[in-house]
Design goal:
Blueprint: E1 3-6, E2 19-23, H1 29-40, E3 43-49, H2 54-65, E4 70-74, H3 83-93, E5 97-102, H4 119-145, E6 153-158, H5 171-191, E7 196-203, H6 215-224, H7 236-247, E8 257-261
Parallel strand pairs: 2-3, 2-5, 3-4, 5-6, 6-7, 7-8
Antiparallel strand pairs: 1-4
Helix pairs in contact: 1-2, 1-7, 4-5
């Protein structure tokens, strides 16, 4: 596991340091926006991604610009054997983890007929999106439970509108996100007694590299209001702001709840 760093003396935000946030899938897009927004809210950030490149360095730089400490950690979340080393490194470099944002995930390699889905494609989606996220959450939760204190602690699962909206052309992705939604609620019930709040965020159509390939397909419906009543694409910052609201105590009497960030995309209609 490779790590790179950028540190500086970190002033507290609004008089308070909120501890350490781990953000997976963090080197660009929604993940980067989350890291920056959490830094603005007072978190030091473990920037985690499967690929180590200039994008990860840029995320670290932007976090540092907000006056927080940041390290980049190269981690394949589907490889559970690396968790112990990873969490030890986070603790040594940044301190105790108070927030986990499960953002890492992959899309189907090719959209197509559900009847043609291969075992390899299915297993890849499940290993990263569901299995890896479940067991990383389990590992982080154990460190939180073993360190009872009064500070706010939280876990966020970023699923998708496809946790509920069916898209047969990307079946394994939908299945992985639906399973992750249930995992979020399971952890919420298990961890409530330890004052650890768990939230699920379901992004809708967000403008990212992952959605670039379907932009032309969906954009007419966005502009016409037939997909999302708010007639624009979501931006990574829309998701990030919602997460920052939750993990800084903006919804204190909430756990296991689902927050849709899609401009109304996920509202059932007749």
């Amino acid at each position: 596991m490779d790590t790179t760093s950028r540190e500086q003396d970190a002033p507290t935000v609004e008089g308070r340091s909120r501890g350490v946030a781990i953000v997976t899938g963090a080197r660009r897009g929604i993940g980067r926006a989350i890291c920056v927004e959490l830094a603005k809210s007072g978190f030091d950030v473990a920037v985690v991604d499967i690929a180590a490149d200039g994008n990860g360095d840029e995320t670290v730089r932007q976090v540092a610009e907000k006056g927080r400490n940041a390290f980049f950690f190269k981690l394949d979340i589907s490889n559970t054997a690396d968790y112990s080393t990873f969490l030890s490194a986070v603790g040594d470099r940044l301190g105790p983890v108070t927030c986990l944002v499960n953002n890492a995930g992959v899309q189907v390699a090719e959209r197509g007929d559900l009847l043609d889905v291969s075992e390899e494609s299915f297993d890849r989606l499940i290993d990263i999106n569901l299995r890896g996220t479940f067991f990383l959450t389990q590992a982080v939760a154990k460190t939180m439970v073993g360190r009872e204190h009064a500070d706010d602690r939280s876990i966020v699962f970023i699923t998708s509108s496809n946790a509920g909206l069916v898209s047969p052309e990307k079946g394994p992705y939908c299945i992985s996100k639906a399973g992750l939604s249930m995992a979020s609620q399971q952890f919420a019930l298990r961890l409530a007694e330890h004052d650890i709040n768990v939230f699920e965020i379901r992004p809708g159509l967000i403008r990212t590299d992952m959605t670039a390939e379907v932009f032309d397909r969906y954009n007419p419906g966005v502009e016409a209001g037939s997909l999302s009543p708010i007639r624009r694409w979501g931006e990574p910052e829309d998701v990030a702001r919602a997460i920052a609201t939750l993990v800084t105590g903006g919804m204190p009497f909430s756990t296991g709840d689902i927050y849709s960030i899609g401009g109304g995309l996920q509202v059932p209609r007749l």
